[in-house]
Predict the structure.
Amino acid sequence: MPSDDPRYWFPAKRYGWGWGPPTTWEGWIVVATFFALVVAGIFLVPPQQSMPAFVGYVIALTVVLTAICWLKGEPPRWRWGNDDR
């Protein structure tokens, strides 16, 4: 039986704008993959050889992570804590 309440991978933060830690296994896989790819980037794009390339690589991964959070997380908006909406 389908639910009317969507299942978000990333809940909204209580204070501020953005998302908190994942609440589903899918979200945790996304975060673990992000960190694994950052560590792999140390070997694939060594920062000792080209710091701009490594920074670009990490920025690209961060853009992808943000896009996934945007698509699979609660809609972002500024929050002030005790919000009943």
The first helix runs from residue 25 to 44. The two ends are 25 Å apart (CA to CA). The mean pLDDT is 89. Residues 14 and 83 are 8 Å apart (CA to CA).
